[in-house]
Amino acid sequence: MTSLASPQLCGIELRLCADGGANRLYDEIPTFFPEEDPLLVRKRYKPDVIKGDLDSIRPEVREFYDNLGSTVLDESYDQDTTDLHKCIAFIRDCTPDLEKSNLILLIVGALGGRFDHELGNINVLYTFSNIRIVLLSNHSLVYLLPKTHRHEILINHSVEGPHCGLAPVAAPSQSTTTSGLQWDLNETPMSFGSAISTSNILRDEKVTVRSDADLLWTSSIQIQNVDPVL
Question: Which residues does the UniProt record annotate as the domain Thiamin pyrophosphokinase thiamin-binding (predicted)?
């Protein structure tokens, strides 16, 4: 099956599950609406597309969503890319060129599981560095700060922080400068095996970052009392 996104599957709103993510959706979406019939909740929040090598989705979950009209795209022939990579490529191909620069993807459940999966997800940030992709868990978020830009990060202190960090994963940084942190960097070199910025503190409502290397930005988040937006 072609890896290009079919226009018929692309819309203004697209619900896309990466393989076993369909299991998580099936199992957990009813818990957000405990007073409602689980079957009705699952039907209301069915994915438009399920995509990946399909080695994780349970047969009964695949059959359930297939019967509801979800499109299941089997790319088991491609073992060189992750399911997340496949899904982001699908969204990229769905998005008109004029809108790609404004594309922001929030990847839920991208952290906190198997470490090799986390490494694969971080690698996707670099592979699609021209797209703003945020990896999200219950406790933190991570995204890439490309060296081609001076970055201004607006902080919502009711949700983000207090902790944050910066790390040059792909290549060392000879000079990184920040503002808005408890311990700002001033043309500071960073590399693994030497110093990186961890357990820093968000001080201001705006953080600026300038570096000669691509950096991973991470901050802690507080979402325990946030109502789900689905």
Answer: 149-215
Q: 124 CB contacts (<8 Å, ≥6 apart)?
A: 82, 84, 85, 88, 133
Could you state, in order of their start, the residue ranges of all structural domains in the chain?
14-138, 139-223
- The 8-class DSSP code of residue 230 comes to -
Instruction: Fill in the amino acid letter for 36.
Output: E
Place 10 in a pLDDT band, splitting at 50, 70 and 90: low
Question: What is the C-alpha separation between 47 and 70, in angstroms, rounded?
Answer: 6
- Comparing CA positions, the residue from 35, 40, 118, 132 lying closest to residue 84 is 118
Token pair for residue 186? 């001033």
DSSP secondary structure string for all residues of 125-189: HHHTTTSEEEEE-SSEEEEEE-TTS-EEEE--TTTEEEEEEEE--SS-EEEEEEESBTT--SSEE
Tokens found for residue 121: 């997800």
Q: What is the pLDDT of residue 81?
A: 83
Domain 139-223 in CATH 2.60.120.320: yes
Residue 126 tokens, joined: 């670099």
pTM here? Answer: 0.75
